[in-house]
Structures are given as C-alpha cells and as structure tokens.
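Hey, I'm writing a tutorial for new members on how sequence and structure tokens pair up, and I'd like a real worked example in the thread rather than a made-up one. If someone can provide the structure for the chain below, I'll link this post from the tutorial.
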Amino acid sequence: MQIPSRKSLIRQYGDVLFITFLVATQFISVKSSALFFAGLELFMLIICLYWGIKAYLKGFTAVRFYLFSWLFLIAGSILNTLIFWKILPINLITESILPIACILQLLGFSFAFADKAKHIEQNRLLHAITDITTGLPNRAYYFDQLPKLLKESDKDAHELALIMIDMSNHQTLSQALGPVKADSVIGEAISNIHHQLIKFTGLMSFPLPNKSTKKLIRLTATHLVVISTEPTYLKELIRDLQRVLDNPTQLDRIHFRPQYKIGTALYPSQGHDLNTLYKNALTASQSVTYSSGNWAAFTDNVKNNHAHQLNLITLLTNDIEHEKLYFDIQPQVNLTNQSLVGGEVLIRWHNQYLGQVSPSEFIPLAEQTGLIYKLTDMLIEKVFSWASANPQAVANQYLSINISALDLLQEGFARRMVTSVTKHQLEAQKFTIEITETSVFDNNTIVHNNVKQLHNAGFKIAIDDFGVGYSSMQNIVALETDELKIDQFFVMNLLNDPQSQILCRNMIDLSKALDITSVAEGIESEGILQLLRQWRCQIGQGYHLYRPMTPVEYLALLAEKDLPLSEPVNRA
C-alpha cells in the first residue's frame, strides 16, 4: 500500500476543503445565491470525486471516508436547492435533508480522521521494521515480529533452518566506491536476490503491515537471512541460492558480483531463540574457508573452531604489535635458461602457543579485522630493512611482495612505500608488488593514484593468482600491469586436466600479446615444467624448482650460483 505524496492536493488541502465547505453551507445565503451555490456544489462534487478516486487508486484507502462525507454533504445541499426552487415539495423529510447530510458528513469526517491516524501509525511501523534501501524486513522485524511467526511453527512441531548470507566484500567495495555508492550497489544486488527468491518454494514468507510479503530479511548491511521450512532439502536449496547469488548485478556501469559465505543453523535444535540462532548461523558462515566452498552448517566442531579463531585474532594482534612475524623467500626461475631472477616474499607466523600457523588461516582473519594494514606495513619494513642490509639480494634480482587489495584502497599507501624504500636507500625497480581481487578497483581514484605513484617511483605491479577469484581483465590494462601470475590451481593440474591446459596456455599467450611477464606458480614436476617451457612461459616457481627458504638460505643460494648467470628477464 502506498499513500499519496506529501505534495499531493488531497494531503495538503483535503481537510481544509471539508471545513470550508461545511462553513459555506451554514453561512452562504441560499436565497440570494441559489444559482451560484448550485454551480459551486456541482463543481465541488466533480473535483472531490476526482481527487478521491485518484487517491484511492494509489492505495490511500482512508479517502473512502472522505468520499462518503463529500457525497452526503453535496447531495444534501443539492436537494436543499431543489426544494428552494420548489422542484421538491416541502415536508418534514425534505426539511431535514440538509441537517441530516451535515451529520452524516461529520460522521464520515470522524471516520476519515480515525482511519488516517491508523494509516499513519501503520506507515510508521512499516518504516521501523523495513530496510529503507530495499524495503525488506530489517533487524527490528527479525527480533520483534519474527518470534510471532516462530510460535506458529512451534504449534506444528515443525523444524526450520535459518540461512545466514554474509556478503563479505562490503568493506572493500565501500573503500573502492565510497559508502554511498557502495550501499546503492549492494542494495540493488540484494533487491535482485530477493526478486529471484520470490519464485522459491519451501521458504518462510514474512508479512508486512502493508499486506505485502517478503522472503528475505536484511539483518545488517551485509547479513541476509532466509528461513527454510523444509530443512530436509536444505542442500538443494543452498545450491539454488548459490546460483542466484552468483548472478552479477550491474548499476551505473558497475559490474558487481557479491563475495559471500553462507551459514545455517536449525530451529529449535541449535537455537531456541532468534539471538542464539543468529549467532550460531553467523559462526557457521565465518567458519567457511576457500577450501571448504562457501557454505557451512553449524556443528559443535564449528563452535569450537570459532573460539579458536577468536583466540587466533588475539594472539595475532599481539605478535604483530611485537613484530614477531617473519618471512621466507621462494626463488623464481627463468624457464628458458633456469637462472635465478628473484624470489617471492612469503609471510610466516610461528606462535609460541599455536606453533606454525598457515597464511591461508591468518591472512583472511587479518583482512576481516583490519589487522592487515599493520601486517603489510610490518612486512614491508622487514623486507626493505633486510634488503638494505644485504644489497646482494637485489643486486641483479627482484623481490616480489604480496599485499592485500585493501592496502591499495588506502590513501597514502604508495607514499608510505616510496618513503620506506627511499629511507633504506633501495631502488624501487627491484621490487614487484603483487595484488589479488582486482575487480574491486574498477574506476577507483584512490587505487589508480596509488598505482600511478608506485609506477612513477619504479615499482612493478603484478596481478597474483590470475584465473581464480575476481581478477578483472579490464584491470590488467587499467593498472598498467607488469606481471601476470598464473594461479597454481591451473598449473598443478596441467598433466591431467585439458581445461587447465587450455586456460594456462591462453593466459601465457595473453601475456605475450600485452607484453607482460608471465609467471607460473606451483610447478611440482618435470612434466609441468616442460609444458610451460614449450608454451614459452617466462618465469616459474614451485617445489620442483625451489622450496621456500629462509633469507639466509636464499643469500647462500645466490652465492652458490655465483650470479649473475644471465641477463635478467625483462619484467617490465
């Protein structure tokens, strides 16, 4: 239901017209102005009917009482005029027509005010329990209105499944586009998702005060809730839901596909109240990792793992503050003549309580919690300090440093890099900055300013893990990429996966066409190495060539090889 605009005549002048017309009927001299008054009555009847019907068709149902008031008053006035003209006889009934019409008009007027007040209250409630951007039920609806629906389910002893969708790239998008534009893009994506969900069966419907129903709750800016009434078919529902979420949204030339994680929890077995149910489903979604896909169901193991992650964040924060993380280096090789051309810096963390922790475990946590910025600054400082103390490490070779996509979305990131490399009296040309998830950089001024400053200082830019995730073809050119790193997922499967062969070879050909250095990660066998050489991939790294090693071991390797063995590979 929609009420007329605040600027509409019916909302601005409707009440005034009633009162004015009522006063006119009491004070205008009918005998001296009968013809004028009859014309006025007819004009008012037409105008009032037009306004009233137009407002009613727009959904402003309170106007039916206004129409009731107008019709009786105007009808009484017209009949009273006909009596004056002696068209109708004067008797007890006709003499009472106008007073009765006025009474009925006032009665309708009272009902109109009451209905209007009810409508305003309904509209106020609607705004309180719906999201202003999408019109979907919000957090207030979840905690205030949803319990009433669950009570109905309890009567049938019916099990439900709460599905939590966590759109995890909201922060990155906000930094890339700004909060207002990011909210618009995400709001449009959520609206598109709900439009698709309307067709789904087995989902709980959420009724709103305006008589409409929804199937999706926007609990927070990035947390969406769907409730399945058929948990038996939960896996099938999740697959259908994933297909919907994977559909990209386009708004104002921005192509957006949400990164998401899904967590589920059962009602009432895994949460007797909505707060517990929400917490458990959210915990399940946060347990999702790259290797496990993008969906996880709540279990005791997930609960224990969540506690582990909280502990991990605490320990990581402490070790970053005390600069206890360190780095290894994995050598990179020219695949044409097998000479060493440099190495990739790999962050490492050994905690006194946890032991060795994999980067795939703590890097995502650092990005989620904002620790990534301090982590990147610490790593760059350690690498530059070490390279400055050991100039032979970058005399004829390069070092590649991985940074998060979030780093380039910071104003001043490039300036800090340039200041640091200058402070340590190093050449920026000896360092390559590797970045992933470049799709969030589309048309972002901060990113392009940072990249421009880095290029002007001499740093090289590499797109890491190309072929997976959200690497954007457009940004290969837009970021003036110097190096394209083919993800190890494709490289490691080259011998037994024809599709990986096609994709890998095409990526190498793309690099040649764009005059970009191609780098293959994950070379694990001689057969893979020979294929890459055959396709003329320029640089490679992997356990078949060299395992990651400590900086001391890397320096020893350089000394052992008595470099330079050949001309450095042109990585520009």
